[in-house]
Design brief:
heterotrimer, A alpha/beta (908), B alpha+beta (153), C alpha/beta (415), B: 153 residues, alpha+beta, 2 domains, 4-stranded mixed beta sheet, 12% strand, elongated, C: 415 residues, Ubiquitin-like (UB roll), de novo design (two linked rop proteins), 4-stranded parallel beta sheet, 17 helices, 9 strands
């Protein structure tokens, strides 16, 4: 606990926390010492000098931003001399400044100019020299403009980029009066800038301003600011949307609240334009004679109710299934799940989690009792060792990555990366382990053996917290015995000295966090990979503390929440098995339906549903906000399956690759038109708020679902508002028991939160695991050879993944010019040696063929991949890489192996 | 060539100034090319602007082509007191350029320098690594001719 | 006429600076040998009690600086010695003389300082224009390694110390100690906020001792000959000698090592008197970041404290002499242009102030209705710059400007 101290500023006694800087103390106490370069998010700079004060018994004027407040300090913040000096400084700044103002940005400098009366020319002394200085403008970036004549050289952008985002893309060029900010070699557009816009948000003068909607926004006009949650990845960044004339014109990060504390990435800041895109679906569409024609809601909903009813009657209730959506709210998904279980009368509800982290969740549920991340996102900042396995977080969870980079760059933490492909985080890594695709279990077993043979296990943790104690450990020891450094190196291709060191420092670290990702989970051995990881964690006792644990960052905004609220073929809200009759009884009571109506048999999972459709067992489907025609594996097969359906409803915000196969398309609302909640990767329930009206007749998903249910004669309940649904969720899922809708208004709450006075849980498993006996469980697993291997016919192994600027099937991300300006083209990464060996040229079109299909794209030389391995982003419909992937499933979690496909590549 | 030079240094940021000196010196036009800066950034795992910003900060580095010989005339108070301005005027005349420019034959770039620390024999200048003191019109003519001659041979 | 007292410069002209054997036969590395026989704290005490003050310009007690550095952050894994050989103050070349003509002397002093603060790694930051100094120092380092004065287990003491040269690239500001550390780390020469001082958080965030070449050159002599011997030189509060570099309108410009406390008149005599017998007009003491003095100051004792009291500075020991007929305005203008050119641009008062001061100085020449008020205003402006600037550069223009105004107001407002 930090000490509270007292000091005096201008005869006022103020309290401060020991170690705080004097300027911040003044700010906290509403003493408005002028300042421009200081910001509490980063280290003091001392450039503007406006925050000068006098301190008793110290000489001269002292910049308060660089002073640590001390007990008993006597400070003068305002007197004639200080104010005169400040006026001089502002006058100086004005003389090198272009003071025109167009009300498209907030201007802290301008506010000070008015405060000191310098808006009146007669109060100024120094003549303007801004013309002679002839400062340049940099318009080369797709998302921002930099105007050096408006720049006061306060370093805030540089520090925003370096200390907040960990990117350090910006610097100064020249020196003295001729210095100004640069990206790259004085061309922002050719720099490493990835467009997060942190610099824009922190620029005090409008020297750096965003380009999108610059012509439309007028801050001195009527602006509505709406706080909500970002619709992209699972970090759950809190956004403030600026709405003017019914349109979203800007997005800023919300300061001071978790999980992002004001930080955003390029998608969060610039990715909102899809909401107001002209291709949005605005009215229900019914396929008539092979063509979609506009229909009224009544017509569409009646048709759906009629068709689903017919199918149920004709083929039985198991012939219907639904895909829920990781993009829509908990409330939408909860009602969708309720719809499937009550109206369809089965448990055939699943969503894309099966395609990303199902294996992680499965392994974690079995071994630890909870399938979610054990720590808070901001914990990364306090870790001393971060193991990143198959997780390209700089691209996929950019804001989480800022905390990781902070730990490394500012606090000396060590990152160890396990990834067959280079990722940008490798630049910050202490060790990069580059195993051959599909050899993770062997690598981890080799690390476990190294830990055991160096006696770095945590005996007391094993004895107290692990099921079976040392006996269970012995079984693991025996199994891993053969993974000697030499043997492991032979399987994985990773030099023994690297993985053995990585293992030793993991075992001895004080606060090690593991960030696992889809490189790890999307394999046939996905569940085993995570078991091996958990084994290593349990025998070293590296979980259950702040800063120690296992965290799978979730890929989509609400992928966590949809599982939490029970849109799963296996579990009800709160991860209670569908087979648990007591729970079904409890839920039936809450829902006011007979217990017998709730099916106690597990339903079909995502890929199984498609398989069942192929086999003719599933005849009707309701897809809410998913696009399986891009995201499912083995797409040619998916297409055949989906064509066999008798009736398909797709509810979405755009036409997708899936909508052509629908019989009815229903227009839904986008995030900024919706109310409700999401749950992010660190189990935080976050509010989603409506900022703008939906286009045309679009409706929020849950309303549509409820309406279909009503028309099928099975009303889901009497909901007036999203809060009614949330409060029902809290009743059915004990993990949310204490979270009322009202509690979420200011800041998210992390589950489990069992009671209304519970603060939420930042760190899981501090006392016990959530397994039936409270103990963690070891699952010794052996390395198995991949069933799909490179051979003469298919000599390459293809890996797939994501990039920063696109998201999922790119339905949303591609409808933002800011994002497509950065990246809008599919490609295949191939090692330069392979490119040469195959006789390809950079950028040449090639055909990639697997046993399941073929696609065409351009080839790029890249040392990011190993020889013999390839990489392709999965977002682009014109090169749908999932035509090549397999639908062979991990037997435990039913996840598909998107990461490993044998292919050949030929010139086109 | 750039890579060979880079490899003589440990890939640490603290070697950046030394590296830039070495790369600039090895270029016949005494400057840092974009390629040199880019490869340096990659070698030191720095962003481009961190390298460019440094190259643009220090007055001895140039990011634009210069002559084979950099004439750096001391512009300190002592040299000014001892009439360096007439020396500069002579140089500008002989080389037919203004301060800051490069002679048409690509041999000389004329620059002003902060105090060269040769004040006991001011006015002074350096041509690349070599110091010349007690300058006057005659001496300058001789020195410049020597360089022209040397280059001719 | 006074005589030079050469202790630091005693070898100059007598030994081959490129021969370590010459240096050793002249008694070199005896101080190091003796220091290694003392405890580090005893070395610091010796320097502290000898009263050695930093010769870079600020005149801070060297022993105190070493004491702070040796006592700060005891759990830090590394501490450093950095030699400030970025001699850039106009009119100053004393460090160059030492580096070119007796490089082992300051190298020995550096190793002693490293022992005193228990640093195992050192850097010598030399401005790149000092090509000859770099070459000689490099050679001296190589020779010292061969003889076992550097490297592991120095002279069998168990003490390890490595040193390497780092180059500047044309920035006066990098002579400022915190800026030098930034530059040494491969960054732009922007000053850091003080505190923390280098003693607490220096290069790479570790405790660092930054000492000037001349300062370090004193250390072997003090250790070898004892503090009493050292205190017998100079004055009570400024013991030892000082190397002055005299340039401008004198017959024999050059470097002179004298007791602390000589007068300006004595220095001019030492430098062969005024050139061509012209009358003395002004001196610029301490370089551009120094002060102008008029004839009334000719007989003041040149010590840190006395000059400070009289509104002048000793600074780096640069003495630039001007004669009747020379323009104080031109030299002042030169200084102001210099500051504009060397300002890094980080803080507002220095970045804009140095630029605006040059424009104002132009107005003094190019006609202004009220030059007297303009000059007053310029001094005021430079005072505010001094009060508000982040580092010594922005604090400097007031020195030549105010002092020129004090002694030569008439010239400045009638030019």
């Amino acid at each position: 606990m930090q000490k509270t101290i007292k000091l005096t500023i201008d005869n006022k006694v103020v309290k401060a926390t020991e170690g705080e800087n004097l300027l911040q103390v003044a700010k906290n106490n509403n003493i408005a010492i002028p300042n421009l370069c200081y910001h509490k998010k980063f280290s003091p700079t001392g450039a503007c000098r406006l925050c000068i004060v006098k301190i008793k018994d110290q000489n001269g004027l002292i910049a308060s931003c660089g002073v640590t407040a001390k007990e008993g300090m006597i400070v003068t913040a305002f007197d004639e001399e200080l104010e005169e000096a400040r006026k001089y400084l502002l006058d100086y700044l004005l003389s090198e400044h272009d003071e025109t103002y167009d009300a498209t940005y907030t201007d802290e400098f301008r506010e000070l100019i008015f405060r000191y009366g310098l808006d009146k020319k007669e109060n100024r002394y120094f003549p303007s020299i801004v013309k002679e200085l002839a400062y340049p403008k940099d318009e080369t970036s797709p998302i921002l403009s930099y105007d050096a004549a408006k720049c006061i050289k306060c370093f805030r952008c540089i520090k925003a980029c370096d200390e907040v985002q960990g990117k350090n893309v910006l610097s100064f060029t020249n020196r003295g009066i001729h210095s100004y900010i640069i990206g790259g070699f004085d061309k922002w557009g050719e720099s490493e800038c990835d467009g997060c816009g942190e610099c824009i948000q922190l620029c005090p003068t409008g020297a750096i301003v965003e380009k999108p909607h610059r012509e439309e926004i007028q801050l001195n006009g009527d602006i509505k600011k709406v706080r909500t949650t970002c619709p992209y990845c699972g970090v759950g960044c809190q956004l403030e949307l600026f709405v003017q004339n019914g349109k979203i014109l800007r997005s800023n990060g919300v300061d001071d609240v978790s999980p992002n504390y004001g930080r955003l990435c390029v998608k969060g800041r610039f990715g909102y334009d899809y909401v107001q895109h002209h291709e949005r679906l605005t009215t229900p569409l019914i396929k008539k004679n092979g063509k979609f024609v506009e229909a009224s809601w009544d017509e569409a909903l009646d048709l759906i109710a009629q068709k689903f009813t017919e199918i149920r009657e004709k083929y039985g209730k198991k012939a219907l299934a639904g895909y829920a959506s990781a993009k829509t709210t908990n409330e939408d998904n909860y009602l969708f799940m309720k719809f499937i279980r009550l109206v369809f009368g089965n448990n055939n509800v699943d969503y894309c989690t099966r395609l990303c982290h199902a294996s992680t969740v499965t392994a974690m549920l079995r071994a630890l009792g909870d399938g979610a991340g054990s720590n808070s996102i901001e914990d990364y900042e306090h870790s001393d060792y971060i193991l990143v396995t198959g997780n390209n977080m700089i691209d996929t969870h950019p804001v989480t990555a800022t905390f990781v980079k902070y730990a490394v760059q500012r606090k000396g933490a060590k990152i160890v990366i396990i990834d067959p492909k280079w990722t940008p985080l490798v630049k910050d890594a202490y060790i990069w382990l580059q195993p051959k695709l599909g050899t993770d279990v062997a690598l981890l077993n080799g690390m476990i053996r190294e830990i055991i043979s160096n006696d770095l296990i945590d005996r007391s943790f094993i004895e107290k917290r692990v099921d079976g104690g040392m006996e269970a450990f012995e079984a693991l020891k025996e199994l891993t015995e053969k993974y000697t450094p030499e043997y492991t190196e032979k399987i994985t291709g990773v030099p023994a000295r690297l993985f053995t060191e990585a293992a030793r420092i993991y075992a001895t670290a004080k606060r090690p966090l593991i960030a696992t990702g889809m490189g790890f989970s999307q394999q046939v051995t996905g569940t085993h990979n995570v078991f091996a990881l958990i084994n290593m964690m349990l025998i070293t006792g590296q979980i259950g503390r702040v800063g120690a644990g296992l965290n799978p960052p979730r890929g989509q905004n609400n992928v966590q929440g949809v599982s939490d609220v029970g849109a799963s073929p296996f579990t009800y809200p709160g991860y209670i098995s569908v087979e648990d009759a007591n729970n079904r009884r409890k839920v039936a009571e809450i829902w006011g339906v007979p217990f017998e109506e709730l099916d106690g048999e597990k339903g079909l999972s995502t890929v199984e549903i498609m398989q069942a459709a192929y086999d003719g067992q599933v005849k009707g489907m309701y897809i809410m906000g998913e696009n399986p025609m891009i995201t499912d594996p083995n797409l040619n097969h998916t297409e055949e399956s989906i064509k066999k359906l008798e009736f398909l409803v797709v509810q979405d915000i755009f036409h997708t690759e899936t909508t052509p196969f629908a019989d009815v398309i229903l227009p839904a609302t986008a995030f900024a038109e919706s109310e409700g909640t999401y749950v992010n990767s660190d189990r935080r329930v976050l509010r989603v708020r409506k900022a703008v009206d939906p286009p045309g007749q679009a409706r929020q998903d849950w309303e549509i679902v409820a309406e279909i249910a009503r028309r099928m004669g099975k009303p889901l309940g009497n909901y007036k508002h999203e809060s009614d649904i949330w409060n029902e969720i809290a009743k059915t899922a004990p993990i949310f028991g204490g979270i009322s809708y009202d509690r979420l208004d200011h800041q998210g709450i992390q589950w489990p939160c069992p009671t209304p006075d519970h603060p939420g849980t930042a760190t899981l498993f501090t006392e016990k695991f959530n397994t039936p006996n409270g103990l963690g469980k070891l699952h010794p697993v052996d390395h198995v050879e991949q069933s799909e291997k490179a051979d003469i016919e298919y000599p390459f192994i293809l890996n797939t993944g994501r990039i920063l600027y696109q998201y999922h099937s790119s339905t949303m991300s591609r409808r933002n010019k800011s994002l497509t300006d950065f990246a809008n083209e599919a490609y295949l990464l191939m090692h330069p040696d392979d490119v040469d060996r195959c006789g390809f040229k950079e950028g040449q079109m090639v055909r990639i063929t697997s046993k399941r299909g073929e696609i065409a794209t351009v080839v790029r030389r890249s040392s990011e991949v190993l020889k013999g391995e390839l990489f392709m982003p999965f977002h682009y419909p014109e090169a749908p890489v999932n035509k090549l992937t397999r639908d062979e499933l991990d037997p435990y979690s039913k996840i598909a192996p998107f990461k490993i496909s044998a292919v050949r590549v030929e010139a086109l | 060539m750039i890579q060979e030079t880079l490899k003589t240094f440990k890939p640490e940021q603290q070697n950046l100034l030394q590296i830039l000196h070495a790369l600039q010196d090895q270029h016949p036009q005494n400057y840092l090319t974009e390629q040199a800066l880019e490869e340096t950034a990659r070698y030191l795992k720095l962003t481009k602007s961190s390298v460019f910003g440094v190259a643009r900060y220090y007055s001895m580095f140039s990011t634009t082509p210069r002559g084979r010989y950099i004439i750096r005339i001391c512009a300190s108070p002592v040299c000014e007191l001892l009439k360096v301005n007439t020396v500069i005027a002579h140089l500008e005349q002989i080389l037919a350029i203004k301060t800051g420019e490069t002679s048409s034959d690509g041999l000389f770039t004329l620059e002003l320098s902060e105090c060269l620390g040769q004040c006991q024999e001011a006015p002074s200048m350096m041509i690349n690594d070599k110091v010349y003191n007690n300058l006057d019109a005659n001496r300058i003519k001789t020195i410049i001719n020597e360089y022209k001659q040397k280059n001719h041979d | 006429m006074i005589k030079e007292t050469r202790i630091i410069l005693k070898n100059i002209g007598k030994i081959n600076p490129e021969s370590i054997d010459d240096y050793i036969s002249a008694g070199g590395y005896k101080g190091l040998e003796k220091a290694l026989g003392l405890k580090p704290v005893e070395v610091i005490d010796e320097l502290l009690e000898a009263g050695l003050r930093g010769r870079g310009g600020a005149g801070f007690s060297t022993g105190m600086k070493q004491k702070f550095t040796s006592e700060s952050c005891l759990k830090c894994p590394q501490r450093y010695v950095v030699v400030n050989a970025d001699e850039g103050e106009p009119g100053t070349f004393k460090d160059r003389v030492i580096m070119e003509q007796d490089p082992h002397l300051y190298l020995e002093g550096t190793i002693i300082a490293a022992w005193a603060i228990q640093a195992t790694k050192g850097y010598i930051y030399i401005r790149a224009e000092y090509y000859e100094s770099i070459r000689k120092t490099q050679k001296a380092i190589e020779a010292a390694y061969k003889k076992g004065f550097l490297g592991t287990n120095i002279l069998g003491s168990g003490f390890d110390f490595d040193i390497e040269i780092k180059l500047g690239a044309g920035s006066y500001l990098c002579g400022e100690e915190l800026t030098m550390l930034e530059s040494l780390e491969g960054k732009r020469g922007n000053p850091r906020i003080k505190p923390p001082f280098p003693a607490e958080k220096g290069v790479f965030g570790m405790p660092t001792l930054v000492n000037n070449v001349e300062t370090l050159a004193n250390a072997p002599l003090i250790i070898a000959n004892g503090k009493e011997w050292y205190r017998s030189l100079g004055t009570e509060r400024s013991p030892g000698t000082k190397i002055f570099t005299i340039s401008g309108q004198v017959n024999k410009p050059g470097y002179f090592e004298v007791h602390m406390g000589v007068t300006l008149r004595q220095l001019i005599e030492l430098a062969g008197g005024m050139k061509n017998g012209k009358p003395f007009k002004a001196g610029l003491l301490g370089g551009a970041a120094g002060t102008f003095v008029g004839a009334s100051m000719l007989d003041e004792r040149m010590t840190y404290d006395n000059l400070k009291e009289k509104g002048a500075t000793l600074g780096s020991g640069a003495v630039i002499i001007m004669a009747e007929g020379d323009s104080v305005y031109d030299i002042l203008h030169n200084c102001l242009r210099f500051f504009r050119h060397e300002s890094c641009g980080k803080c507002v008062p220095c970045r804009v102030g140095t630029t605006q001061l040059v424009s104002e100085a132009d107005k003094l020449r190019n006609g202004h209705p009220d030059k007297k008020s303009l000059l007053v205003r310029m001094v005021k402006q430079s005072e505010i710059m001094a009060a508000t600037s982040l580092c010594p550069l922005g604090q400097s223009p007031v020195l030549p400007l105010e002092s020129a105004g004090r002694y030569f107001e008439q010239e400045l407002i009638t030019i």
